Amino acid sequence: CGLGNGKAASGQPIKLGGIATKQPGTDFTDIPNAAKAYFDCVNANGGINGRPISYVLETEQTDPGQAASQARKLIETEKVLGIVGNTSIIECTVNHKYYEAKGYYVIGSGIAPECYGTSNFAAVNMGPRYSVDGAAQYLIRQGVKKIALDQSNVPGTGYIAAGAAAIAKDAGIEFKDLH
């Protein structure tokens, strides 16, 4: 990582930010913490053309007002160059139009469909909907007779089961969505 010269980066930092859900029962900070660990490695090995990366992480508790204010803080107050490592239940839904208006592209993941289907998000995985669809297809190929999906009871996650339910129905397989 970094220039690989073994010298610590110095100079004007490049500011990056991220937002993650962290609340009792749901802690998505491992992903932005992994991004920070990578940036620490970059900084210890020459940085980006000698410049260190300064990473600012905000955490939210599935409060739309909080998620919106954190995006504005990162862009307008912290003046981050980019947003990376976002992993949230609601952040994509709340902020995608703001990011589009400001010309920011986010590298991250999340629960909401806006994390995977809006122009300013570059997802780092398939997301829960497509992952569940793929799991249902795999199980059907393995010859299961019934499929049960156990998911969180977070509002707005009904779309996650919809694809697997349709896939199961098409295959004549019983499907149950549990919360």
What does the model show?
- This protein is α/β, with parallel strands linked by helices and 179 residues long.
- 41% of the residues lie in helices and 25% in strands.
- It has six helices and eight strands, in the order E-E-H-E-H-E-H-E-H-E-H-E-H-E.
- The strands form two sheets. Strands 1, 2, 3, 4, 5 and 6 form a six-stranded mixed beta sheet that branches. It has a two-stranded parallel ribbon with strand order 7-8.
- Helix 2 runs parallel beside helix 3 and helix 5 runs parallel beside helix 6.
- The chain is elongated.
- The termini are far apart.
Order of helices and strands: EEHEHEHEHEHEHE
Number of helices: 6
Strand content: 25-35%
Low-confidence stretches: none
Shape: elongated
Helix content: 40-55%
Largest sheet: 6 strands, mixed
Q: Kindly report the average pLDDT value.
A: 91
- What is the number of E strands? 8
Distance between the termini: 42 Å
Cα gyration radius (Å) = 19 Å
Given the helix and strand composition, which structural class is it? alpha/beta
